[in-house]
Amino acid sequence: MSSPPPLGARRENISACMQQPNLIILMxxxxxxxxxxxxxxxxSFTAAKREEPRRKQQRLHRGRTNSHPAEPRTLTIxxxxxxxxxxxxxxxxxxxxxxxxxxxxxxxxxxQVAINDVNFNIRPGEFVAIVGPSxxxxxxxxxxxxxxxxxxxxxxxxxxxxxxxxxxxxGFMLQKDLxxxxxxxxxxxxxxxxxxxxxKAERREIALRELKRCQLEGxxxxxxxxxxxxxxQRAALARTLAxxxxxxxxxxxxxxxxxxxxxxxxxxxxxxxxxxxxTTLLITHDLSEAVFMADRILVLSERPATVIEELIVELPxxxxxxxxxxxxxxxxxxxxxxxxxxxxxxxx
Amino acid sequence: MNKNYTGATLTFAxxxxxxxxxxxxxxxxxxxxxxxxSETLAELLRMYQSEALLQHTLSTLQMTLLGFIIGSILGxxxxxxxxSSPLLEKVVSPxxxxxxxxxxxxxxxxxxxxxxxxxxxxxxxxxxxxxFPILVNVLQSMKNIDRDMINLARxxxxxxxxxxxxxxLPSSLPNLLAGLRxxxxxxxxGVTVGEMxxxxxxLGFLIxxxxxxxNAAMVFNxxxxxxxxxxxxxxxxxxxxxxxxxxxxxAEHR
Lengths: 348, 254
Fold this sequence. Notes:
The complex is a heterodimer. By secondary structure, chain A is an alpha/beta fold.
């Protein structure tokens, strides 16, 4: 049996918790063998590689033994194992409680489990990224948050309210901009507001304000085909923000763009989201994108997906990707994620 | 560039007319087989003066438009209905396929047996012939609508009706208009067959009348006028298409 990571300096753990006071109300429920504040653990890369084959078991065994030999610490990464329940859901923008989703296969009585016992929560204003092997059920998480379908078991809460149907607190954005080609840009931004009983003038006012925020003021009356791919995605962001959502879900919004547009758009999204203080869940394949943009990264396993690791990104200046890219530690986070995912997709 | 082509096209037309005028004479082909260009024009004038050509043409134009409009509306409505209800589509689609394959003009004698020598048979044949291409095109576009687009609308709490009006209907317009373009030409066929089989008005009637009199020039003229009606209707649809689908980028000048 490979060794779990060392328990490490407990004092650091506690101080890390104190820096995030709203985390203290978290209560361990199914990781009872962990230390009292055990969801944050100093952890070394070298240890990570060794323990990976047993990651799932390790979720249960972590903290029990301390037989791991001393390793030179190259990087300390704080991780939490999820599985806690909120005692006070008012402090979460989004919460998944033991969510499992299976799909029935056509022409078969079997069901395929897309995600299995997923637990996490996102605090208001936080930017969380979800990474995982392709086809692991990331979009299932998104669709359940949007209320497009229900979990097979478990619950999803947005702002403390259980999600049972499509609700207007969630804004989502996909790789495709999904702009209506027959509408002008401002008309497209108004689209999300049209089921809300707002007056025409009011809708127009909100739409123009959002376009300004997304730096598209001059293009209100253009049609989508007249805009570049990056501008169309910004218009889609404006449409998403116009409904003033409690949480924004971004499902690989940059993956269809060319490399340079992608960089510019990531920067632009980062700034807009940071300055507006919007709670965001980013689903992505791009590990560096996750590290540069997020406060926290959830790593999913292969299908049936479950959260196997939670990585707190301690880089300065979230929202300023250009600065974050320069941070030397960023590369270490990325290579850590890379190691994790490479292992998880080894079966392919 | 463009001017050159126009010149060449006109030259070609002149050559064709010249050939039409003089070649039949060279081979002693009688006028009841191939009337010359000038004979055909003279017959056109005679038809206008003594065969009530204008009334016949207007009648055909009216029937074509009426059949085209009614058939399109019925086809579009049923297309949207089937597109909105997968169950209904599954139940009905085999019959629709069968009816689509059946030659619609063959129904004309049946309609005459049912409705007599009235306007109904030709109108029904036209409606029937226009109906299916529109239905199939609309149904196809309803099936091809991006699921993510519908999901986005659902996430924005749009009602079923709003989703139809704001997404499904406009999304299927390109297909609907493509169907209308096809049917603009088919409608003329439907009316012509209806008039030929059982009628006493319209250009189709003039064709069978001219045939009975061995008057090929009359048949030529009737065919030419039917073509003009088809071109007019087709141009109308293309004009509407360009206005409605202005948001679809087009390649600059082909």
